[in-house]
Amino acid sequence: MTSTTPPAGSIVVGIDGSTGADQALDWAVDQAVLENRALTLVYSGQLSAGGNAMWLGQPGIDVGAMLEEITVAGHGLLDNAERRAVRRSPGLVVHQVLSTEDPRTILVELGRHAAGVVVGSRGRGPIATALLGSVSVHVSRHAPCPVVVVRHAKGTEPRGGVVVDVEDSERSRVAIEYAYRTASFRRLPLVALRVVWDGAHLRDDEHVVGDDEPGLEAERELLSEATAGMREKFPDVHDRLVLVRGLREHQLTRASRTADLLVVGSPDAGAVDRFLLGSVAAVVERAACDVAVVPDGLVPVA
Q1: Structural contact between residues 284 and 122, judged by C-beta atoms closer than 8 angstroms
Q2: Reading across the β-sheet that carries 261-266, which strands appear in turn?
Q3: Residue 248: other Cβ atoms inside 10 A
Q4: 13-27, 58-72, 190-204, 288-302: which has the minimum mean pLDDT?
Q5: Distance from chain centroid for Cα 124
Q6: Of 27-36, 142-151, 217-226, 230-239, where does mean pLDDT reach its minimum?
Q7: In terms of CB atoms within 10 Å, which of 15, 115, 206, 252 comes out highest?
Q8: Cα–Cα dist 124/131, whole Å
Q9: What is the average pLDDT score of the chain?
Q10: pLDDT at 221 over 60
Q11: Looking at the predicted structure, is the pLDDT value of residue 118 above 60?
C-alpha cells in the first residue's frame, strides 16, 4: 500500500532510519535541488525480510496488529526523513510513499517514472526490512532509471570527483553523459576511465597507459570517440581521459578509492549472468565511493 502517488520525474530515495539511509537521503536532497525536482521518500516495512507469507497461518501471530505497528512506525520514519530533508533544503517539495511490498519491488516500480533512485548500501531500520545491502544490487539491476548507491559519508575525507567507466563508445554513451551532467551539477572534475584487459597486470594497483605507449591507438580512439561532444556540452567540467591496464572490476574499485562518484553502465535485460557475475555487481558491492548505475538505452525523464 502507498500513502501517496509521487509525481513523475522526482528523485526517489529509500529510507529505513539507518545511518546509511540518512546519507542516501542527503545525497538525494542535494540532487533534487540541483535538478529542480521533487523528492519522493519511500519506506517499505515488510513483515519480515523473508516476505509476508511465512507469517500466514502461524498460531499467535496477529498480522493485523503487526501491519498497524509497521504503518505507525513507517509514518514516523517518513516524517522524520521529511523534516531532515526540509532542514537541508527549505522549500523542497517532498512526497511520501509507505509500502508493505518487497522494497526491491516498490523501488523498481517507482523508478519507472523517476529521474533517479537513491539507496544506501548497508543498514536496517527498527523494523525487520531488507532495504539496504543486497537490495542495492537488485535495484541497480532492474530499475529503468539511474540508481545511485550511496556508500561514502560526505566530508569524511578528500575526494577526487566523478569517474566514469568507458566500456565502449556506444554502450557507454548514456552513462558518460550522466557522469558529465552530474559533475557539472556538483562542480566536480571528471575522469573518463577505459580499462584495457591485460593478464600481466591483474594484480597491479594501477597501471596507467602512457600517451606514447604503442599498440593502443584503437583504445585511445575509442575513448576519444566515447567522450566526443561532452566538452562542448559541459564546458564547465574539467575532465581527463585515462587508459589503464588490468582487470576492469579491480581497476574500477581502485579508482573508487579517490572518487566522489563512480558511474557505470548496466547491461541490457538479456545479460543477466554478465551482471550478476561480472564487474558491475561487484563494483556496487565493493566500491569505496558512491556508485551510479545507468541503464543502457536510458531515455531521461523530463
Answers
A1: no
A2: 94-99, 39-44, 11-14, 116-120, 147-150, 290-295, 261-266, 162-165, 190-197, 239-246
A3: 21
A4: 58-72
A5: 18
A6: 217-226
A7: 15
A8: 7
A9: 80
A10: yes
A11: yes
- Angle at CA of residue 7, ends 6 and 8, nearest 5°: 120
Taking residues 66-83, what's their average pLDDT? 83
- Residue 97: burial class (beta carbons within 10 Å; 0-12, 13-18, 19+): buried
- Three-state DSSP at 11 gives strand
Cβ-Cβ contacts under 8 Å for 4 (sequence gap 6 or more): 95, 96, 97
CATH 3.40.50.11810 at 162-295, yes or no: no
User: Domain limits of the chain?
Assistant: 11-150, 162-295
In the predicted structure, residue 241 carries a pLDDT above the cut 80: yes
- Residue 166 CA to residue 194 CA, distance in Å, equals 5
User: Position of cell 578528500?
Assistant: 158
- Angstrom distance (rounded) from CA 271 to CA 171: 13
DSSP 208: B
Residue 200, sorted as left (phi over 0), alpha (psi -120 to 50) or beta, turns out to be alpha
Round to whole Å and give the CA distance between 153 and 170.
Answer: 33
Asked whether this chain's domains 11-150 and 162-295 adopt the same fold, the reply is yes
The domain defined by 11-150 carries CATH number 3.20.20.80 = no
> How confident is residue 71, by pLDDT bands cut at 50, 70 and 90?
confident
What is the grid cell recorded at 37? 525536482
CA distance 166 to 76: 42
